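Data availability excerpt. The first of two example chains:
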Amino acid sequence: MKERQPSPRALIVDDHDETREALTEVAELSGFSAANAGTLADAQARLSETTPDVLLIDLQLPDGKGLDLLRKWEDQPRPEVILITGHATVDSAVEALRTGVLDYLVKPVDVPRLKTVLANVSRTLAFKREIGQLRGQLRELGRFGTMIGSSPVMQRVYDLISKVAPTEATVFLTGESGTGKELAAQTLHELSTRSKGPFIPVNCSAVPQNLIESELFGHERGSFTGATQLHRGFFERAAGGTLFLDEITETPIELQPKLLRSIETGKVIRVGGEQPITVDVRLVAATNRSPQAAVQEGTLREDLFYRLNVFPIALPPLRERGRDVELLAEHFLEYLNHLEGTNKTLGTTARDRLRRYSWPGNVRELKNLVQREFIMSEDVMELEDLGSDDAAGPTRVSPNEGGLSEVRVGLALDDVERRMILATLEHCGGDKRRAAAMLGISLKTLYNRLNQYAGRVPGPSPTGV
């Protein structure tokens, strides 16, 4: 049972009795406990007793300017501020904006607009309280919403998510394949003011290149052969919620200008259409590659990268998360036990192997291993697939395979990546699925890389390509 939260507090400061009464009534109907003051001195006395969550301040008071109240919070977080005036001027509006007020209302106050502003404040406060509760839960259980882990590197990730989630900022998630970028994006959505809207995940590498424009932006009926009806794209379907573009660096370079324009304008134009359509979408992007390297290679436009990289969050690989690996393994096992009505456990040897292995496939590899061992084991799981030869780390190729002996300081990152991919594929005997899992990338991404290398890569060719 959730603990009942106290009502958010509002302080109304205005020297007209009727205005104060009207504003107080609106605040209370919006779920706030409201106090009021008629002068600057009265307001300062109120503020010495308690700090409200939102301040509704008249610009001009009998004993000074309403904005003078904000000096109290010059070096610390302050309440949200809604400025009200009966004498609107360009100068006063500019001054208000410079001080970071939430809204600027002219008398007589537009009551529906004020209700909307207060509702947004109330929602934001509720999300901040929820995030605070999640932080407490993290300390006790090693969880943050649906994310699991108590290591310092994950706590840093949780702090970043908790700061950016209630905002509208675009977030760029980076990290190796299998580190949980989609789960992080979903957590961002669930802790945002858009949580009641849709969360639409799109793997850009999995959409055929000849269809990705239509899938993202939609198409009009008859716009191309086979377009027998109007199709709403992912941007339109995510309206009011969050659009998660995974593996963004795999988006065709010729489509990226249109993607950038849609992000900047908040409008899309369907394939075959002419009229721009406004879409209210919060964007989260992700990649398992270095976006800076992708820019240098020419596969990611620099202007698109900077537009996406408003608030970057790097997800750590599992090998850097210490005992989180045991927490995650226990979580996956608990879920399977619940699903199958069993009571299987992790053995002592299994725990030791979990800690010693370096997890090239990250959390996804761990989840798959637990599920496989769950099927194979009777009561106690010892994770036999993580044998003594593999316990110190993932299988390694010899220095001479695929030209790895030529990897040296200063070698371009794309060359290092190419050599590692080809060497791993050769080590796996041409088994692309196994190679992709070992490299921690999707099978589609592996095929894309191999297509790029075809015809221009010296040295041994991978089997089956």
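And the second chain:
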Amino acid sequence: MTKKGPRGPEAARLRQRKYELLRLLRIPGEALPGSLSMTHHACGTANCHCEKDKGHARWQLTFMANGKKQVHYIPGDWVEAVRMRVESGRHFKEAVAELWVTNAQLLALERKQRR
């Protein structure tokens, strides 16, 4: 690989985007993986409306850890805070993925220019 890397307008654009991403990428300490969703369940109490209805609403955070699906129920008053933390984690993950693609595109340009 050359020390300066690939040249040209496409390479300049990719490098600019790479450095923008690097400036933005700070690991959000409170970020959460996975997704937050509302589910419904029957409580099992005799004569409760949930037996005939769709059930009681409850929120859950679902994510993978060590190759296994994890589900954690979230109290209703935590939902907005957890939603923001999940969103933060998603944005971080997307930025890292874009950085990797940008690096791969720069590598491909460099290889193409060396020919």
